[in-house]
Specification:
Strand content of chain A: 25-35%
Number of domains of chain A: 2
Radius of gyration of chain A: 20 Å
Number of helices of chain A: 10
Number of strands of chain A: 13
Oligomer: homodimer
CATH superfamily of the largest domain in chain A: PurM-like C-terminal domain
Order of helices and strands of chain A: HEEEHHEHEEEHHEHEHHEHEEE
Shape of chain A: globular
């Protein structure tokens, strides 16, 4: 509850006035202007030792990741993020600097998307750092994009290169909010999600919800330099990293072939890539014309 | 994000269909019907060893407390709770039973108020249990009740007896959602909050936000049997427990004397009690006609 938000006065002094916020801290709840369309809600909790290693990466990057991961979920529905709340379990062993750095990181990302942090709950305890963010958003006039709308024949796109996010991208990514809105205005997005589990796994989620299959073009999947770097020592190919690593926080989505053609012609942002097509059933990877089964873990036997 | 909500299928099978939820689990966000009026948002995080002791109280009561504490904040604004999300950090040392019991407890309270759990994030880790709930609500047509609207001369009421919640009430309370709505319909609630820090502290919050003072009538403050029980061994009086213990999750609020008279005549629920009046400045306790300063901690020198 905002009344307990230790740093709220400090934060408030640094937060631009926001027309959507009708009541702020100092009350038991925040009160926001009601959204005009569907209200989107998502929540993600990050824990030290699981989602980040605080002593290695620093609190500011943890704050950034916590906010960005939530906004990425709003982006995945092609929504406009409107507000966020933040709950913290801060380790007793740290001082107030930890909270301040965390909030700076949370605000780095929230400010970039004009998202007010409207409330929270700041606690300290004997355990390790836990950061829980809930983000609210609003669907656009075209409605929220779900995972279940893909059809056989759809073209599959990804918003940017994949793999190797463990080398840093998983902390420092920019959620694809603007890109999702741009795409949603330009074409009919039939199914979309953000890549947190890995391309194969998240594409598989779309296939399961849409009751269809997919074939990925192994030569077309864009691969990061980080995936290539990891590959040198990991015993896995760069493509395997791109298919399975996860926490890329890019968007994978499907559109009709007509809309796909339009996207390739207009190319609304340079990292957009067509990476495959939907089929009736199964999850497949095609390389040099040869199609082989693709596990949702990203594993391909012959690579 | 709902897609990662391990128990969502299990939960969903036990959740009545809810007209406010337009999209459910299986997508990156939940999508809800937009509220007609101000959207209320609150969040509370509970941690093992701080807010409860899991090994002593069991997971079901922890789940109940986590949901009830959040709905109590919605009640404090006289709002209607509409949805909740739940994020969990589950200790590796426990099995799936812990999550199941937690969700049963969360649902015990959510169901009682027709609140759908629309999403969440279920994690396991090496640390202790952390439960973070975010509740959404909607203001009524009379608007949300804030803490800052009390005026000198207002009468101060409390929704029920106070003190000694550590003996069990802090886990098993019913959030005063229905009572708040009833009161809000009957009279103009000028300032209100729920009692989590303790009557003195929370009344002090109202005074600070309203820039006024308050005098409590020591003989009128309703006291629980638990406060009397604690008093036998604590070295503190039952009244001191009622003033300072906290986690009562009753409502303290102010109304005009006219509305106060109406409440005493109509008495919408039996535990309602008039406990004092607002004054220009200071926080005071009056016993047998003698007024003495009251610390926000609940401490009174002469008691």
């Amino acid at each position: 509850m905002p009344g307990e938000f230790e740093y709220i006065a400090w934060l408030r002094a640094r937060t631009p006035a926001h027309s959507r916020v009708r009541l702020g801290p100092g009350d038991d709840c925040a009160a926001l202007e009601p959204p005009a369309r569907e209200l989107l809600v998502t929540t993600d909790m990050l824990m030290d030792g699981t989602d980040f290693i605080l002593s290695e990466v620093g609190a500011r990057r943890v704050g950034r990741k916590a906010m960005a991961a939530n906004l990425s979920d709003i982006a995945a529905m092609a929504g406009v993020p409107t507000a966020a709340t933040v709950s913290l379990a801060l380790p007793n062993s740290h001082g107030a600097d930890l909270a301040r750095e965390l909030f700076l990181g949370l605000r780095d990302v929230a400010d970039a998307f004009n998202v007010p942090i409207v409330g929270g709950d700041t606690n300290s305890w004997a355990g390790s750092l836990v950061v829980s963010v809930t983000a609210l958003g609003e669907a656009t006039v075209r409605g929220p994009v779900r995972r279940g709308g893909a059809r056989p024949g759809d073209w599959i796109f990804v918003s940017g290169p994949l793999g190797g996010s463990i080398l840093g991208h998983h902390l420092d990514f920019t959620p694809r909010v603007a890109e999702a809105l741009q795409l949603h205005e330009l074409v009919e997005l039939r199914a979309m999600c953000d890549i947190s589990d890995g391309l194969s796994a998240d594409l598989n989620h779309i296939c399961e919800e849409s009751r269809c299959g997919a074939v990925l073009d192994g030569d077309a999947v864009p691969i990061t330099d980080a995936a290539r770097e990891l590959s040198r020592t990991s015993g896995r190919t760069p493509l395997q990293h791109a298919l399975g690593d996860g926490e890329d926080f890019e968007l994978v989505f499907t559109v009709s072939p007509e809309d796909g053609t339009k996207l390739l012609a207009r190319r609304p942002f340079p990292s957009l890539a067509k990476i495959g097509e939907c089929v009736e059933t199964g999850l497949w990877l095609e390389i040099n014309g040869t199609r082989q089964p693709l596990a949702p873990t990203g594993w391909v036997h012959s690579l």
